[in-house]
Amino acid sequence: MTDYEPVIGLEIHVQLSTQTKMFCSCALSFGEEPNTRTCPVCLGLPGTLPVVNAQAVHFGLMMGLAFGSEIAPRSIFHRKNYFYPDLPKGYQISQYDIPLCAGGHLGDVRLHRIHLEEDAAKLIHLGESGRIHGSSASVVDFNRGGTPLAEIVSEPDLRSAEQAREWLTLLRVTLRQLGVSDVNMEEGSLRCDANVSIRPAGSAALGTKTELKNMNSFRFVMQGINAEIERQTALLEAGEQVSQETLHFDPASGRLTPLRSKEEAHDYRYFPEPDLVPLAPTEEMVQAARDALPELPAERAERYRRDWGLPEETARLFAFRPELGDYFEAAATAADDSAAVATWVKDELLSRLAAESDPAASNVPPTMLAKLVGLVQDGRVTRGAGRQVLDRLVEHGGDPAEIVEAEGLGAMGDDGELATIVARVIEEHPDVAERVRGGNPKAIGALVGPVMKETKGRADGGEVNRLLREQLGV
Amino acid sequence: MLSQDQVLHVARLARLELSEAELEVMAGELSGVLGHIEKISELGDLDDVAPTSHVVAVENALRADEPRPSLPPEVALAGAPDPAQGGFRVPSPGAAPA
Amino acid sequence: MSDLLDLTASEAAEGVRTGTVDHGELWTAYRERALADELNAFSWVSGEVTPPEVERNAPLGGVPVAVKDLFCTEGIPSQAGSKILEGYRPPYTATAVERLTSAGAPLLAKTHQDEFAMGSSTENCAFGPVLNPWDRSRVPGGSSGGSAAAVASGAAPWAIGTDTGGSIRQPAALCGIVGLKPTYGAVSRYGMIAFASSLDQAGPFTRDVTDCALLFGAMVGQDPCDSTSLRFPEPVGVPSATDLRGIRLGVPQELSGEGIDEGVLKTFRATLDRARELGAEIVDITLPHAPHALAAYYLIAPAEASSNLARYDGVRYGLRDPADDLLSMYTHTRAQGFGAEVKRRIMLGTYALSSGYYDAYYGKAQKVRTKIAEDFTAAWRVCDFMVSPTSPGAAFELGAKTDDPWAMYLNDYCTVPVSLAGLPAISIPNGLADELPTGFQIAGPAFSENRILDAAHALEQAIGFDGSRARAA
Ligand SMILES: [Mg+2]
Ligand SMILES: [Zn+2]
Fold first, then answer.
1. Which residues pair with A75 in a beta bridge?
2. pTM for this prediction
């Protein structure tokens, strides 16, 4: 039987972190009481007119530049006409044939377009009780209505649900880094649709695609796409056709249900929004957006590999969690061995801190971690003792050198102290000593432990072995 | 000439209920008006003519991102035909928007 | 009191400033006159017995103004002549009205209109038709018929209305007063209940050209709430010209022959002769695409209207049918709330935008619009103004055209081309044809309002029209 290759494209709606709505001066809403963030414009009252939020355009340009998209020299807004209670004007103001940004890419996935539009309001379902005759009712809350949205559409470059999830993660950190959105899926500030089709592996032709609507967590995106891939595979293997339709994925049941019947075929009757004038980004506007671009995660990871020689995984970790990157860079600049610092941050410090917490806010300032790594690197403290020092630092803070002093954790010099301890241990274990001398060198291991114990881990393992052999004459 | 099916389809898009009688009258009147309107198809080649959607020659009419006070909810809901629980009550829509 | 009502608005304003007129008496006189109106011109008359305070030396001198129903006025019914908005009281006031009140023209009344400004007779008003003060068996024109009838009958010193394809100029002509449709963008549309957004413009109705300039000057200006509004490039002056020396008036054969009533043509030609006597040069021009303007207009305007009127869905305000399923709530609410003409245009516009027809209809109409604008640009090379009859006929009898939509639409034959190009045009009284007023339209390049008003002023003197008979009734 043939195996199939999935072809996946994503369509993401992300709420922009502006102060006010897309076309009116209402402050954005964060769970206020219903209809406390509305005005004549976002309620669609008769006679009102939209005015474009300059900051939303600025954010749109930042995204376009960050993704290497082409900025349209002149784009216009259209009206997308349809009736729905969460749409106060009976149309959504969006961009149609000329989006603000076209093309570009994020990671190895190409972008099709990015355009600006307004969010719909919220429908709160009341259920049967809400209405006479038992039929159900909903209540409209216009607080969210008019929130600025960027619609980001990818090309069908993704080949698996896992890859889709990974790319969404990259997109999220990138948008956060840009500061254009807080991208909080739980609060619905990022919503994702997926176009899914499958084709016989190796074939270049595209299969019939279906659209999965409004999956609002990365996990559901993955589950939904996988479920749809299975469904389509089953159809094709049964010799049936995949029909082009819009589907809703129910995470609870894992089932996919068609969203619209065919005869309700929609006709949005797009036409140029006569209440708005064209958007023609000036050189000043574009430059301002360019100046506002921070270093993006992808670039940052690359820099960590290139300049600091970090392994891929560590570089991505520090780049995708900027607070880790910042901490690492501060510590590494204060130390000689950046690779060692990276390891200590990733393997030792993080495991001692609460998940997702910022190390800069811990008791261990980067400079002190650098100092500790220094002590370990030039052998004045063994790695084991270094771990103990770090425990103290995380608990009470302080200076690693002083802690080593106070707790006598410094590595032992060759002042004969170790030799004395070794001698004593041999005395205390005559039987073991016998076996070693009797031609069983492996038995020596049984003596290393006690020595280490005596030295509270301050002794160098190699040195202990050497002295044992020397004194046992093997 | 518009068929009654076409008129019904358009009425559905426009969310207008038409009675049998209205449907017939509407089909006749629209066809009559379209008969006159068809005259623009007499106009020769307009392919390379740019469409005019704005007569004003302005661009980038942008607003500073500064919040202004919103309406008190009781004012926002003042005209609501069926207010409930601080919002505007409507019969529940079935599926998502067509 | 009656002598008070005989003053033009400018005379009254001057009187208030110089102390010869008491603005309280002026308010009372007009309020009583408005309350006594028998033409159904008003949808609301102020209940204030004492006039709102007006600061001394306010440019409009405390002379009260009547405002078309579709201008939103805070706490005051703003229904756009529609049952679907019956009793609707907005929480805010339109920018144009704000400007008038702050310039010293308190709100006297709201006036009836064709529903959502769709009509040329004000018979499509959910609250009854408005009558023509010259002959009450006839229509005042439309859609701003209430404002026109109010000013013509002396029930208001002046008024404002809106013009999308002729809704200020045509009723002004049919009622024998002055009406100005400004350059698109000169007056803010914020708070004007929309008909066709790319065409709607607010403008004044006045007894004479001087009043027109005064009221217009108080309305213009860019508005941060209207992205399509523009800064008016110069102050609006007081028109003073008494001759037309050096001025070339272009007469397009397309708008001055076929399709125009003989009586209207006679008054038009007579005025052209007077213009010559005043020193004007009359040149023949051509607007080759003007004959297609009406078709383009009746695709563009209904298309925009079908979208603008989608917000009347029974959810947030206005009429609501208590159906239990959403679709029926929508379709019943809109079926009950909208009148026949509005439904017709919503259907026409929805059809013109629907998939498969966009390019053939809406798209094509927008291209014709471009050609019409180019026709005017070409015309301005050979003339200063385009002149024509305002409307092909004088006031017609109530009901005469209600059964034939296209016959009704033809009322805008001469005004629509100017609207599509977004240009300013004025209609001034042009004498009587069979005892009924006719109008003379003067259109010019964008923002030529000052020059248009000057030319209109000179012609007004020469024509010497007497509108007092309509006020005597
Ligand atoms: Mg969208
Ligand atoms: Zn708002």
1. A279
2. 0.89
Strands, DSSP E only, in C29-153?
42-45, 65-68, 107-111
- Phi, psi (degrees; rounded to nearest 5) at A233: -60, -45
Average the pLDDT over C381-407 and give the result. Answer: 96
pLDDT confidence tier of residue A262, bands split at 50, 70 and 90: very low
Tell me the per-residue pLDDT of A298-357, one tens digit each, with 9 for 90 and over.
889 999 999 999 999 999 999 988 899 999 999 999 998 999 999 999 999 999 999 888
Helix (H) / strand (E) containing C350 = helix C340-353
Q: Cα separation of C195 and C162, whole Å?
A: 10
CB distance from A13 to chain B under 8 Å? no
A125: chain B residues, CB-CB within 8 Å: 92
**Ligand lying nearest the CA atom of residue A14:** 1
Q: Which of residues 266-285 of C touch B (CB under 8 A)?
A: none
Q: Residue C44: what residue type?
A: W
pLDDT of residue C1: 45
Residue of A nearest to B54 (CA): A274
Residue C263: both structure tokens together: 């009586």
Query: Do residue A138 and residue B93 have CB atoms under 8 angstroms apart?
Result: yes
Name all chains with 3 or more CB-CB pairs below 8 Å to chain C. A, B
- Report the C-alpha gap between A225 and A205 in whole angstroms: 20
Question: What is the Cα gyration radius of chain A?
Answer: 31
Contact present, C85 and C176 (Cβ < 8 Å): no
Chain A residues with CB under 8 Å of C317 CB are 45-46
Contact C295 B37 (CB under 8 A): yes
Residue type present at position A90: G
Chain C CB contacts of B54 under 8 Å are 198, 228
Does A43 sit within 8 Å of B90, measured CB to CB? Answer: no
pLDDT digits (tens, 9 = 90+) for A9-21: 999 999 999 999 9
Q: Where are the alpha helices (DSSP H) in C259-325?
A: 262-277, 293-308
The reported pLDDT for the residue numbered A379 is 84
Q: Which residues does chain C have within 8 Å of residue A128's beta carbon, measured at their own beta carbons?
A: none
Report the half-sphere exposure of A39 (CA within 13 A, side-chain side): 22
- How many Å separate Cα C304 from the centre of its chain? 19
* Residues 6+ away with beta carbon under 8 Å from A353: A359, A362, A394
Decide if pLDDT at C260 tops 60: yes
Residues 299-328 of C with CB under 8 A from B: 299, 306, 310, 313-320, 322-328
Average per-residue pLDDT in chain A?
A: 91
| A351-391: pLDDT as tens digits | 999 988 899 999 999 999 999 999 998 888 888 889 999 99
Single out the residue of A30, A49, A53, A54 nearest to residue A39, CA to CA: A49
Q: How far apart are CA A278 and CA A77, in angstroms?
A: 7
**Minimal CA separation from C190 to chain A, in Å:** 6
Phi and psi, residue A212, nearest 5°:
-95, 125
Which H or E element spans position C418?
helix C416-420
Please say if the pLDDT value at position A263 is more than 80.
no
Identify the pLDDT of residue A135. Answer: 62
A453: number of CA atoms within 13 Å, CB side? 7
Residues in chain A: 474
CB B52 within 8 A of CB C369: yes
Question: Is the CB of C315 less than 8 angstroms away from the CB of A49?
Answer: no
Instruction: Report phi then psi at C68, rounded to 5.
Output: -55, 140
3-class state of residue B74 by DSSP: helix
Asked if the C-beta of A140 comes within 8 angstroms of chain C's C-beta atoms, the answer is yes
All chains having 3 or more CB pairs closer than 8 angstroms to chain A = B, C
Q: Which residue of A has its CA nearest to B75?
A: A39
How far, in Å, are A127, A128, A181, C315 from residue A132 at the CA level? Answer: 11, 8, 42, 17
